[in-house]
Amino acid sequence: MRISKIFTGRCIFFGAIAIIFGWFLPSRVQAQNAGNNAVYSGPTCCTPSAAFIDASVFSSSGDLCAQINTALTKLPPSGGVVDARGISTPQACAASPWNGISNPPPADVLLPAGTIYIETTWVLPNATRIFGERQNTFVTACSTSPPANCAKDFVPSDSNDALIEMGSSSFCPAGCHGVAVQDVFFVVPDAYTALRLNGIVNQYSRELSYVDHAGFANLNAAGLLVGGVTGSDGSDLAANSGPYSNLNYNPCPHSGDSCAAGTTKCVVLNAQTRGLHGITCIGDATLSCQTCAGNAAIYVNASNNSIEDVHIEGYWDGIEIGDVAAPAVVGGVLISNVTGGFNGGGAGPVTNVAHICGPNSPNLGFGACAITTGTVSDVSIFQVNDVNNGKETTSIQDDVTGTSIASPLNNDPSIVGMYALGEAVAGTTGYSRFSTFPNNAITGTAQFDSTIVPTWGVGNSAPPTACSNPGAGPNLTGSIFSNTTGTPSGSKTIWVCVAGTWQPVI
Amino acid sequence: MSRAKTVAFGWIFAGTLAGLGGWLVVSPMPARAQTPGNNAVYNTSGIVTSSAAFIDASAVTQGSDICATLFSIISSTNYPGHAAVIDARGISNTTGSPNMLTCNSGSPWTQGNGQRTNSNTTTNPATILLPAGTIYISTSWILPNFAQVAGEGKAATVIKACSTGTAGCSANFAPPAWDNSWPGGPANGVNAMVELGSPFGTTGSCGQTCFCPGGLGSTDCNSVGVRDFTLDGAGQNINGIVNQVSQELTFVDDVALNNIEGIGLWIGNDANPDAVTSVGAIEAGNSGPYSNLVFNAGTGALSTTECVNLQAGTRGVHGMSCTANGTPAAAIYLDGSNNSIEDVQITGFQDGVLIGSQALSTLATNFRNNLLLNIGAISGVTNVVHICGPNPPNGSAACAETNNPAADLTIVGASNLGVISASITTIRDDETETALADASVAMYVLGEQTPNGSTTQYTRFTTSPRLPSWATGNVAITANSACTGNGSLYSRDVASTGTVLWACVNSVWTPIR
What we know:
Oligomer: heterodimer
Strand content of chain B: 35-45%
Number of helices of chain B: 4
Largest sheet of chain A: 17 strands, mixed
Largest interface: A-B, 107 and 96 residues
Structural class of chain B: mainly beta
Helix content of chain B: under 10%
Number of strands of chain B: 36
Number of domains of chain A: 4
Helix content of chain A: under 10%
Shape of chain B: elongated
Radius of gyration of chain A: 31 Å
Distance between the termini of chain A: 130 Å
Number of strands of chain A: 31
Number of helices of chain A: 3
Structural class of chain A: mainly beta
Distance between the termini of chain B: 132 Å
Radius of gyration of chain B: 30 Å
């Protein structure tokens, strides 16, 4: 009996132990990678899944970046997803998430909502993409004045002075691929007045590298800077990157910048890309970007770029094309749907919405580019709108041909449907060129400082006698007019504007 | 001895259980308080623990429907103030068809729909991942500042307007009574299935429940977006997506708009405060892009059915197909400045892109500077692009509004694959009295009126040989050869002697020099 009781007791004991441990075995004893997702593989929970590594479990590693760093080391060499959305914010990062990882695996890193203060540059390695939660995720440069969860002020990792670098000479000296930033806002605190910080600098990432839905607030240098480093094959190491799409840039409201400084830029393209598509650049009336001739929101300093769907306020120049020194050549540039000036906001006018750099600035108060010795050709511009409410400005300033398409003085916008600058015509001082600009405000008010742009008029009747502007502006000398109802014996078909009068040709 | 053994064994047994129990007590998984819906992941000790990477809405206490559940999460006092990702993909119908959900309670951000007042509102931002299946909605989903909604793709996630008689729906779809329209707004009222921000609040005058910061008419929303689902209007005269106030970084991507007999996508601009509705200056300028969209009105399309109504300057409509039954007047109404419309295919609308047709005095002075790129009609379209103006060609009827000055318009790539005739055009330009019946046109750029000229005299360039154009070739033109575009030029580019420039005069190529 006693033996039976003892046996029974032992059975209960070992049974209980077996059941308890058996119940926990799948989830607690089986070897897992920390951060793995817990999923069902059968009726009981759980088994690990390597679908992603949750970085929030590495809280003992340190701050948010240290936790991401640890998670990155858990990825297989082929790469994976690091989910850091479970890490609470705000947090400060003492180092980059990739700090100390000599051969980082390809990774998609999901950042949490809230503010991530960074004390140094994040340099993204090859095949690395970071995703935020759009305008709910802020990456902010650390400042201890006022303190913001930071132990020290932001110190850039190199002379690029960037919050984010896409690739680097150490990660990919011959160029990275597939580096991306998406759905993140970048902020520099008001305290930064001495150190000029760029938002994203891409000098080393090429194909399939992009920035999408990003914002830049309070920066006092460039929001986005692309290119500028040449590889061994002679091409720019950021060539064929992009598109850079759906961006928003607001510089810091600091005053007192000198014109010589001129470093508050929205975008600088020094390489051929897949384009800049959809951006708003807002300047400030107190900044040199608006008050100093030649300072631009967007610099297109490389060939083969498309700039589309752009809104700019508060800069001297909206888009500058070819602010480069000889013997550099910039061509094959497409600009479309650009609005400059007060439209949609109140940050101030834009003196020249699109400014083609060259040596022939007409000296009408519209200014020249900082550098005028490069060669610019083959620029196609569709739909530029200059909304400047009384300030005499231009929608297009072409310093290659010495052309100004200026706004009228009655607050009407200066709009150009098409302006295509070709190339120099051999044996002449002219350029192949076509524009639909008729030098005639839609209300009939003159654009006094507009220069002559020969164009082509069409109508189903003979043109009027005068081909001059109804105001005091210049005429259309050199323009032609087609009368679709002309006949050999009646009203002529082809006319040319000579010294303010339409003259029949045939 | 045996008793001692028994006692000792009992202590061992009890101690072991106590130890295990204690371990379980301090173990993170069973004892640690987690936020319901948190994900489960393995920590560094190999123990399952919680992660706040996202909130799984299927694991929280379920409300009366999916919208009530989502609202309870977003409006919770524990909800992070800086937003969160809410994964609702695991929610299914437990009492009926698992893939059919209903929202009779309101929307994820507004509740109290029983009285059509939606009086209970939260404006916390969130990124919501919707499940596959059909979600029947009884009222508008109005997204607040910084909010996003994403489905599992157009074929998988369908948000459908409730109709009386549909299982689970208590009434026909109806918008909140306080979400007003205004002069210049959609003719059928806001009536939106999805609205990107709103200038209104639940009290009508916005009060403390504004969807956009700053309140009525003074400040816009930003970064509001929807993607990867289908909106099904169930054949009702309601609108799909309305954006009247959300601007920078606001977008719509990969969305289908089916069986909507109102307006598929309406992007507004009202620059003048309206005393009647207390609406201030509101607009959706600089929003977009609106990309990869499909509109299919179904069989019940009305003459007033529209694919897109675009009144503001945006970052463009890029990639869209518009399909109807031939009844609607126009697919895309373009009445704003500074837009690019690219890669559009249209079927079954009288006009494809209709420019400047709306009698909106507030828009008239701003109506310029638009780019159309790759606009095509498959069939059943009378004019692929129709520019309104005072000079309709061939005695055809003018647009209802002819005083909006269409100018500075560039069309690159327009085609009509349907039957072309004098009355069926690729481009009809009522400013210059032009009907262009080419099957396709590479370029048509309408500039502005020439100085002192008549109202039909414009700067213009087109590659169509039926209009004044510029041709080049390396051979001379035979004398008296016929031409089609009176006023055209022909340049002979290989010539050492003889004529190098001709003009098309009275339908005959005539040498100039």
